[in-house]
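Give me structure tokens for this 430-residue protein.
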Amino acid sequence: MDEKESANGVAGPTPQSLITEEDVAAALRKDKGPGARLTSWSVVDFTKKGDNYACVVSSVAVRYARGSEDGEVVYVVKLNPCRKMESFREFTHGVFEKECKFYLKLVPELNRKLENAGQTLLRVPRCFHGCLEHDREMIFLEDLRPRGFKMFDRKKGLDVAHATLILQELARLHSASVLLQAETPDEDLAEIYSFLKPDWFELGAPADSPNSIATLFDGYLQNAIEILKAVGGYARAIAWVESIRPHVIDIFKTKLGKASFSVVCHGDCWNNNVLFRYDAEGNPVEVMLLDLQLCRRASPATDLNYLLYTSITGDVRKPNLKKFLSSYYAAFASVLEAAGADINILSEQELSKAFREHNIIAAIFSMMIVPIVVMESDDVPELSTLTDDNLSEIMDEFKGKALKMLDSNPMMRPRFLSMFDEFMETGLIP
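Here you go.
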């Protein structure tokens, strides 16, 4: 097994070295059938710094024989990042379990409901193999690149066309889960698919640990306060951020938990976690949802807030907000209507109300994600070197770079401040 030298000098496996021939053969059989025989395989890395966060994404190029014919195929593989962080070991396992079981257990059932309603299947990659052994977690997925799918530049805000495609696909995911839930009205989907129940902020180190999720988010909020102080004129916003700092985990439990109207949510839908296919004129015509590592049962408003405030600039979001919500709702209602279900289970007015009630989720995650989104790849913290001992040091480095971007990166100031401006107008920030 290949090894790397970690930041603390202790050698350990690389993510790519976790892949075994048995894993590759299992994925091949699932994809090409039991008669496919593996002849050779190799790992081919293709992502760059700034693309990987909770996992490492690589690929495996495979040659195989089936009968008298030879073939080649490439699989995208998500891998345990092999960081020397005991405090995040259970977090890593938990998010891999969520995504792996989402693809292998839940997607077939959601697609069954969509197919019965005459709808297109969910636009997610096919999953061929998953390993949930602690410390060697991995997921083999369809390589969408030959079909023309590509990433959107994370530094740019999504335009109306890109954002609408994502919203419509989220609506199809959400509505398919409503149809599936209707089959078992006395038992919530989170009981049947138990991987939906634990949430990421409940995993990992205890809340009072210096490496806990709570401590990590407190660092992001402190960083936001420093940015607002440097800009000046945002005393109201600073006071509000200070007031929510001690309660972030409680806010997550309240706003990200099961709601009066819950659906299966993506949980981490921002522009790094989707791929687009374009027509000959460069217009986006199809989207694929990726990275379902934070899937959960919650209000659909959580996904909408997360996407619209982390991945869209204020000058696009604000004048089009009603249009965005209407586009989502039309797609949501159309699936229910096609299935003969009650579209009044959620009205457009109720959706708008829920959206505003969950704006605090948009605010918290924007404070974390926006500086990462607009940061140049070379400036993104080197997460491969993270350990329990240097997490606070790397977070401090990130804060310093985020502050410098106020003057050096023209995208930072308007992108970061637009969210605060909007929420001072709507009254979320008193």
